[in-house]
Amino acid sequence: MHKIYILFVFLFTTLTGCGVNVSESGTDAVMQEYGGSLMAKAGENTLTDTSAVQGRYVELELTNDKLETVFPKLSIPASNCAYLFYQAVSQAERAKYDYIRITIKGKDNSYSHSYRLKELDTVEMAKNKFDEVGRLLKSENYDALLNQLDVNYFPPAEFGKVKPMLEELDKQFGRTGGFKLQGFEFFDYVNNGDKQRLLMMYSLLTKQRKQALVALTLNTSASITAPNIAGLKL
Hints:
The chain is globular. The protein is α+β, with helices and mostly antiparallel strands.
């Protein structure tokens, strides 16, 4: 009887909401990346608390004890879960939601955050620049990469160190074989008195003899054809 009750609670939690089925392609994409166990539901938040994100949502709750030992903070894989789901579903499926709420439960810690679809639209557009940086690193075309950097965000002394640093990494750890998105976060930055919204995209940089998490920061308000890389932390 106890097992039947637990099963009923699971089904009720998964299927309640506003009658919207959660896309299996989206949940499969998250499970293929992280494993563990996943619960999903769809619903609508109409609370009067204006501090909470409002509207229709899909919620994913991922339980995996290993993630907190792999990443410096759970917000990184949480944001990637939202993007993986977003990227795997159709435009029609995306149109059903205003935000995607992700909860990650580890052994000792947990993390929850709501990602608005408009934010994920921005990440999707920025992914083209992210992939371009990966291609330039793999081809060791560092002069072309320097042309993508916005000098307004780099002190002159630091800007001149970027290419020698990348070349030194090649000598120590071999060529770049992979540059894979691991997560993202938005933050506000004041540049010459102008408040800007920047996007930090975390990547797993894979070289022949080492893997490391690196951070690429983009000014999403700049033209896609203009230098818009505001930071590169290796």
